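Write out the bound-state structure for N-hydroxy-L-asparagine.
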Amino acid sequence: TDLTPELEQTYTSGLQAALDSGYHALQKGQSAIEAVLAAVISLEDNPLFNAGKGSVFTKQGKHEMDAAIMDGSNLQAGAVAAIQQIKNPIQLALDVMRHTEHVMLSGQGALDFAATRGYTLEPDTYFFSQQRYNQWQQVQHTDTTALDHNIPVKDKKFGTVGAVAVDSQGNVAAATSTGGMTNKQFGRIGDSPIIGCGTYANNHTCAISCTGHGELFIRAVTAYDVSCLMEYKGLSLQEAMHIVVQDKLVKIGGEGGMIGVDSKGNTALLFNSEGMYRGVRDNTGINEVNIYK
Ligand code: SD4
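---
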């Protein structure tokens, strides 16, 4: 691995903490939605990952975040796009789902809505991390929209965060949150908040959360494509995800990966990128965190 033992340990405990917060929500009898919310909030609050605190820098040196959450039991969804200064974008996405008649709010409109729900704005400095700043410095004066490729440890994994869960009722949910891509254009929106692209959940098929080069994930309609392959071709989650990640995305140069779960509790975690930090926990005793290929 290209990580120092210390950094490796920090990533591992960050992932485990997120898994635990999601799992404990389920143990308390909460729904899959509450579980993915808890897991993603834990990752947004962790500056190691590219979501909430620790989000990457835009070309203008700001942090613009996207997030979405979806309930597979009724196909309800909420999303926010290109928002600044919100500590937990995934919470705001859930509020859009629960307290508006809309699915997605962006920019200032999303912030106006947040104010009506009692959110306060964090200063830009809250989102700062040296690692993301260094990354941005390397590409700031170019036209490159860097993937998360250039951090000092030469880590080529993406930092977007996501969670999928199934609860005891067989309801699935998915949540994704991201700062997007380093040096992205002001106003650029990635796949994460777009239902069916970076995020999707449907009890009849699966819940999916993606990370990777968003433009390609939008064009491939990735998350819904996995669901479609299951629904209309009768494929298993693993088979469907394999086609999308290892074949369809690869053919158009779409680097990244995804995590998924179906209503029976089958899971799949696949990527065509150099790596993907990931973990699984369930009630049969499986509790695994993996930061290696
Ligand atoms: C995006 N999919 O905005 C995200 C990028 C990502 O870690 O995964 N970054 O395109």
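---
Residues 50, 148, 158-160, 178, 180-181, 190-192, 198, 211-212, 214 surround N-hydroxy-L-asparagine (CB under 6 Å).
Helices lie at 5-27, 32-44, 89-99, 107-116, 130-139, 214-219, 222-233, 237-251.
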